[in-house]
Amino acid sequence: MLSVRQNRMFRELLEKPDPIVMVGAHDGLGARLVEEAGFDAVWASGFEISASHAVPDASVLTMTEVLAAARVMNKAVRIPVVVDCDTGFGNAINAIRTVHCFEEAGLAGVCIEDNVFPKHCSFYPGVPRELADLKEHRLKVQAICEARENPDFVIIARTEALIAGRGLDEALHRARAYADEGADAILVHSSLSTSEEVEAFACRWNRPVPLICVPTTYDTVSVDQLASAGFKVIIFANHALRASVRAMQETLRTLRQARTASAVRPCIARLSEIYRLVHLDSHFAHERKYLPARVPVCDTE
Ligand code: SPV
Ligand code: MG
Known about the structure:
The chain is α/β, with parallel strands linked by helices. It is built from twelve helices and eight strands. An eight-stranded parallel barrel has the order 1-2-3-4-5-6-7-8, surrounded by ten helices. The model has no long low-confidence stretch (mean pLDDT 95). Magnesium ion (MG) binds at residues 45-47, 57, 84, 86.
């Protein structure tokens, strides 16, 4: 039931005037932290989900693995979860099944890009950047839009034309084609270090379909600037993952050197904080209500 509401919430956010800020996550705890920090939605990031399996973001994981991660995130939060489904895990037929499965699981929407399967992360160096044939990809976008049964389920079409060095005209041409096939929003990705190119894209955008951008490499621009340039959704795609990697590396280094856990105490979350994040209180309330009498013992720091 909850997932139906979560699902509808993203569509509602798209209809409101304010910018939507989504943040990347890959598991339930990360998604909950995104929610608790006050963001509008969770971006179930392919980059993060892949990294959390210790594999590159290169179509290595199966649709089932990404769906499993997305379900965990969706269950952990009340805000909508939008899933990065890369190419839709293959051709249009695979993408149709992807939409069926993610919609059925109560996710708020999916994002499907015009890379060729198997895709590579947009930022990997030295990778020849080949785009899907436009005619074929247009049919894929049509297929996924027609595959959707719940009108609240959001289909985001993403173009990698700028990443592939194909220029603004090609990016606009592709994005317009995807919007005309029924996509609910267009994600235009760029790997430049400034937002110039995505802002130029937004300036020439002439469809009533909202725009999304991902300021990973052009990281000095603000949400407000991107919103005034015409972007409706801004995704901070992988910053929490990168923060946690840095924190874990530093903690592990300190533990290895100091050989006592007290050395990391000032830099780590208290156990009680983890209890709070996993809603231990409510778990204990259920135990008291539904299990034979047994008073749980809770060691807090
Ligand atoms: C992801 O988070 O997997 C994305 C966004 O696709 S990016 O990694 O910035 O390409
Ligand atoms: Mg991705």
